[in-house]
Write a structure and sequence with these properties.
heterodimer, A: alpha/beta, Alpha-Beta Plaits, elongated, B: 239 residues, transmembrane helix (chain B), ABC-2 type transport system permease protein (chain B), membrane (chain B)
Chain lengths: 303, 239
């Protein structure tokens, strides 16, 4: 059992607060760290990995400090987001070097390369690898000492769907084996497919934590805003507001459109075309006006 | 204290890229110039001392020191690949110490060896000039490697600062401001060379004792401080 505890951790860079009083506990299994770009995910992961000192608060692994404690790396495997990785070595040389730095040998390196299915390209220079191959070799270098905690910063960035699936399978297996696996992502679907548990970070704050289904529900149940243009805006507005799925409608005269706020996402999307047909109104435009991830996240923060 | 894997990675990074070209070009230039001087002016002890002192020790050794010292760690910190060293149960001072050994070895090979060859070409080691300057280059290699390794650890602009120190401080200020010469790796190493040559061809502004102490203090302090800086090195994210 490996538990990573983040206790009232803040980190600021000059006047900018990157991480603001975050407390969370990451236990065995796969945990997704979800948040929009710039939310502080990398800063958090850097602190979890011991590469950045918290300005206040503590990060501990099974009670042991992570910062300035080299011995802790016996238990931690890290897959950084950055690409750079001794491109002049072959994949095998790179993984072997990582094994040696842990006091291990060629056998451990070979096993790790087999785990990520990179044996076929192990004797090619890393410089010639595709993004997905690099990611897998990074993964092998992190697994070489059989760590109980695995930290991955945006591991799926730039991977094609097949590579993404392979890596997801691998991480799922790691989680099933009882390892503590934490990965960061700004893409909801990735987290949903893989994580048992998610932690949401928005603007440096810990916005939500728990089972992904609950958080997903929070996300879909939030009020949705739509911009609607039709052949008869006012008649459509009158018909829509009569239904409880709609909580507000504004007639935007300058835009020549309706701004509709729906509270029940599922019901509203079924209602709109039905109402239009019944009243002989033609729908010209229906577009969600706040589907950006940022607006989804900021709703979560308020929830 | 010495990690062979860290050493191997450092050697390959230093000697594998374009860096190796620059490392090889300067010694080659020195030897070509020495051949030309010998052919045009014949063997002359004073000329040999001028070429070795002005070109080899004052210019080539510090530049090679900058390339090897900063190159032993700077690029890894810049591109973030140092994370693969830092995420291992290895003491940070061990990483620095190993990289220092590599930087010293590379600086010595690419500066002291060509200095010796050039010296023999110039005057066949007359009055021990070639050996004296080679010893100076060896001694200077240690201090330069330590200084520039520290610079590579603390600054992203290590090469620029290193060259400014090597060329402006050592060469320019040294000749304009007498006091600056006592704070110069070049003068310290010359003090050792002076002892070796024994004649009047090789002279230093600094006494041998002062020079030895200064060389030792600079090397040890720079290495220790680089180890401390690496312990708290912050790898900022890309956000």
């Amino acid at each position: 059992m490996t538990t990573l505890s983040i206790d009232h951790v803040s980190r600021w860079f000059g006047n900018v607060v990157a991480v603001n009083d975050v407390t969370m506990t990451i236990g065995p299994g796969v945990t997704g760290l979800l948040g929009p770009n710039g939310a502080g995910k990398s800063t958090l992961i850097n602190m979890m990995g011991g590469f950045l000192a918290p300005s206040t608060g503590t990060v501990t692994l099974d009670g042991e400090q992570v910062w300035r404690n080299e011995k802790i790396y016996r238990h931690i495997g890290i897959v950084p987001e950055r690409e750079a990785m001794y491109d002049f070595l072959t994949g095998r040389e790179f993984v072997l070097a990582n094994a040696e730095l842990h006091g291990l040998g060629a056998k451990a390196a070979q096993k790790a390369l087999a785990t990520v299915e990179m044996e076929y390209a192990q004797d090619r220079k890393i410089a010639t690898y595709s993004k997905g191959m690099r990611q897998r070799v990074k993964m092998a270098s992190a697994l070489v000492h059989d760590p109980s905690l695995l930290l991955l910063d945006e591991p799926f960035n730039g991977m094609d769907p097949r590579q993404r699936m392979q890596l997801m399978d691998l991480l799922r297996r790691m989680g099933d084996e009882g390892r503590t696996v934490l990965f960061s992502s700004h893409i909801l679907e990735e987290v949903e497919q893989l994580a048992w548990h998610i932690e949401v970070v928005v603007a440096g704050r810990h916005a939500a934590s728990g089972d992904f289904r609950r958080i997903r529900r929070l996300m879909t149940d939030r009020p949705h805003r739509y911009l609607v243009r039709s052949s008869d805006d006012r008649a459509l507005a009158a018909a829509l507001i009569a239904d409880p799925s709609t909580s507000g409608i504004e007639v935007d005269v300058t835009e020549g459109a309706l701004r509709v706020q729906a509270v029940d996402f599922g019901r509203f999307t079924a209602l709109l075309p039905k109402v239009a047909r019944e009243h002989g109104i033609r729908l010209l435009t229906v577009s969600p006006s706040d589907e950006s991830l940022e607006s989804v996240f900021s709703y979560l923060v308020a929830a | 204290m010495y990690d062979p894997t860290v050493a191997r990675l450092t050697y390959r990074a230093l000697l594998g890229r374009r860096r190796a070209l620059i490392l090889g070009a300067l010694p080659l230039l020195l030897i070509v110039i020495s051949l030309a001087v010998r052919a045009l002016a014949g063997a002359d002890d004073q000329t040999a001392a001028d070429v070795l002192g002005g070109l080899a020790l004052a210019t080539m050794v510090p530049i090679i020191g900058v390339i090897a010292g900063t190159g032993a760690i700077g690029p890894e910190i810049d591109d973030g690949s140092v994370v693969y060293l830092l995420s291992k149960p290895i003491k940070r001072p061990t990483i620095i110490y190993t990289k220092l050994i590599v930087a010293i070895a590379v600086t010595m090979v690419f500066s002291a060896v060509p200095t010796l060859i050039a010296g023999f070409i110039l005057n066949g080691n007359g009055q021990q000039v070639a050996v004296a300057y080679t010893v100076a280059a060896l001694v200077a290699s240690i201090a330069y490697a330590a200084l520039f390794l520290l610079l590579g650890t603390v600054s992203r602009h290590a090469v620029v600062f290193g060259l400014v120190y090597a060329l402006i401080w050592e060469a320019l200020f040294g000749s304009l401001v007498p006091g600056a010469r006592t704070l110069s790796v070049q003068q310290w190493s010359l003090a050792v060379a002076e002892k070796v040559a024994g004649g009047e061809l090789v002279t230093s502004d600094v006494g041998l004792t002062t020079a030895t102490v200064a060389l030792a203090v600079v090397t040890v302090l720079a290495t220790w401080y680089a180890g401390q800086k690496l312990r708290t090195l912050t790898l900022a994210g890309e956000e």
